[in-house]
Amino acid sequence: MSNLKFTVLRTDPSCKARTGILELPHGPVETPIFMPVGTNATVKAIYHEKLKEIGYNLILANTYHLYLRPGMEVMKDFGGIHNFSSWNGNVLTDSGGFQVFSLSGLRKIDEKGVTFQSHIDGSRHIFTPEKVVDVEHIIGSDIAMCLDVCTPPDIDYRAAKEAWRITKNWAERSIKERNSIEDFRGNLFGIVQGNFYEDLRRESAETISSMDFPGIAIGGLSVGEEKSKFNDFLAFTASYITMEKPRYVMGIGSPDYIFEAVENGIDLFDCVLATRMARNGTVFTDDGPLVLKKAIHKMDHRPLDENCTCTACRRYSRAYLHHLVKCNEMYGGMLLTEHNLTYLYNLLKRIRKSIEEGTFLSFKREYIARYYGK
Amino acid sequence: MSNLKFTVLRTDPSCKARTGILELPHGPVETPIFMPVGTNATVKAIYHEKLKEIGYNLILANTYHLYLRPGMEVMKDFGGIHNFSSWNGNVLTDSGGFQVFSLSGLRKIDEKGVTFQSHIDGSRHIFTPEKVVDVEHIIGSDIAMCLDVCTPPDIDYRAAKEAWRITKNWAERSIKERNSIEDFRGNLFGIVQGNFYEDLRRESAETISSMDFPGIAIGGLSVGEEKSKFNDFLAFTASYITMEKPRYVMGIGSPDYIFEAVENGIDLFDCVLATRMARNGTVFTDDGPLVLKKAIHKMDHRPLDENCTCTACRRYSRAYLHHLVKCNEMYGGMLLTEHNLTYLYNLLKRIRKSIEEGTFLSFKREYIARYYGK
């Protein structure tokens, strides 16, 4: 049961990197693609129309946040997030598994579901896998993630195995719930867990791959572990996931991690990093991150990036952007957000081009060397 | 000595309200007009290009703030605020008199000038009238305000008289300094003071009017006094200022105050209210201010204002804007800022139209009645 069509266009001859077209209810998306995070049905500090102008047609929102605020009564009243937020592109909703793990004061997981406390008012709520699918159906998600059990990098084998057992059970129940909703228009993606244990990761990847999901996500990575561990477990896990479906790594969004993911045949990723960094005054460039607060930029007439097409780079100097950041001016956060999202969109465009030309790995090598100033 | 041309086009038959064209170094401005405040060389939370799209061609910046940050070294290096901030419209700079009065921890005024402490790092600085003219020349202000002594509404006659005496002396010294700068390209405006004493106000208005200023401002109003007192002193003071030059009331920007000012033949006004209110979730409408935090808006599908052309009104419901404000999302502040500035620009357009049609007073009556829900 699927409302998407995924076509792989080209695969790099030397690795698993691939380009494709993901056709979703609100239009096509070229992959691999980065998805900006719009937690509260708004990507922070940027106009919807700017997102569209840059080229984005798939953003992420959080079931956990939207469930608490504006709440399901409002979502129902507006017929879903697209109408409520006036965003006519695609929306992927995270299930809340990660938010409950990272934001909630209280979190109690059992076979039935997860009990948690709202970070807004402390009220208690229960998410079951069935309820999350229902909520995502009301939200009208184009891609809806299953409820899963996300675990920190330091738990023991027994706990990791139990978390995966519950995640698997919830995946089955999520599919059942989805199948019971006659007019379900979204696409329910499964999530691979298994912590940092190879046998659990392999079992999880193979099991989730074999289930009736139109897309597969890797969860539980980029949760605080070292980068080499991330790389190893990404490559290992990805190798056991079907290549037939779109593959998504959750929670990554810096250029170095993106290259790593693409090399392993990942098509989708999301992260708050690009927008959060921007609001704190740091931007991506081909020469690595630029911290605009630094006094070195005070009189610099150059744009952030000679080749970038965003408003900040077309119109403003580093000196003016430095000034805005120093003054804590909202316009600084707005311009730098537009820059980082433009930068990542264009980086993915360059990556897709390199895959089409069969030069992905050399592009990666050159890019990473320059990014780290080597 | 003037680099402006001011042409009165139409005066209302029943009051002093008038339309005009103010030609400035960076293009013409239709009057009466509201000037958005861009303290740090940025009108908070709005793209420069949006300001231009709305129709604004004259914004305000603060000498006090720019002097402290980015500082004059940067301003010189960039050849002024237009190049530094990439704003190609006109800029009026406040002299710092009011900021020193309202922001500075320490303020010591004597004949020579004012000693103050930076609100950023506590460092000590001196502004003399000459120095302020020099600084505004470096900034490249299209309209530069003289340094004045701004006083609170509760001081005695003796103190008010002394403040006006110094203001007058500083006005003369400001003109002398301006005349000594060969390539001074801006327009130095004088400021009327006199606190809330009629004889001082009259003397100040007549004296500043008679001096070699191409424009006259009324300062020291809207500093905490009651509205009726503001109205009385505005009308009284304005009646003694020349009608030949552009007339500016400093620090007002709500619809009711704007109508009052226009009725008294005021051409220019500025205020942080529109943009500050917006960031706090309140917007102007013909039916009075709308506080978006209120739960009443939670499911309201209507736009803020049926007739408004801003992004918020064209694209979003009150419910979505309520949600953004409740979530403290920057996009809320951005959209509401755009709304309030669009609203005020269009209100002034309606006011100018009513003056052209000779119906200003009836428009004022109807507008105010609806605004206060009568």
Task: Provide a descriptive summary of the structure in words.
- Two copies of one chain form a homodimer.
- The first copy, chain A, is α/β, with parallel strands linked by helices and 374 residues long.
- Chain A is globular, with a radius of gyration of 20 Å.
- In chain A, the strands form four sheets. An eight-stranded parallel β-sheet of chain A has the order 4-14-13-12-11-10-6-5.
- Chain A has helices at residues 48-54, 63-68, 72-78, 81-85, 97-103, 129-139, 157-180, 198-210, 227-238, 255-263, 273-279, 311-315, 318-326, 330-356, 360-371, and strands at 5-11, 18-24, 27-31, 33-36, 58-62, 90-94, 107-109, 114-117, 124-127, 143-145, 187-192, 215-218, 247-249, 268-271, 282-283, 290-291.
- The first copy, chain A, has 15 helices and 16 strands.
- Chain A folds into two domains: 5-271, TIM Barrel (Alpha-Beta Barrel); 280-374, no CATH class.
Average pLDDT number of chain A = 96
CATH architecture of the largest domain in chain A: Alpha-Beta Barrel
Beta strand count of chain A: 16
What is the count of DSSP helices of chain A, taking H or I runs of 4+ residues?
15
Question: Class of the largest domain in chain A, according to the CATH hierarchy?
Answer: Alpha Beta
CATH topology of the largest domain in chain A, which one? TIM Barrel
Largest sheet of chain A: 8 strands, parallel
Oligomeric state of the chains present here: homodimer
- Residues in β-strands, percent of chain A: 15-25%
- Low-confidence residue ranges of chain A: none
State the separation between the terminal residues of chain A, measured CA to CA: 48 Å
The total number of structural domains of chain A is: 2
Task: Find the structural class of chain A using helix and strand composition.
Answer: alpha/beta
Helical content of chain A, roughly?
A: 40-55%
How many whole angstroms does the radius of gyration of chain A measure? Answer: 20 Å
Q: Major sheet of chain A: order of its strands?
A: 4-14-13-12-11-10-6-5
Largest interface, C-beta closer than 8 angstroms, per-chain residues:
A-B, 38 and 38 residues
CATH superfamily of the largest domain in chain A: Queuine tRNA-ribosyltransferase-like
The outline of chain A comes out as: globular
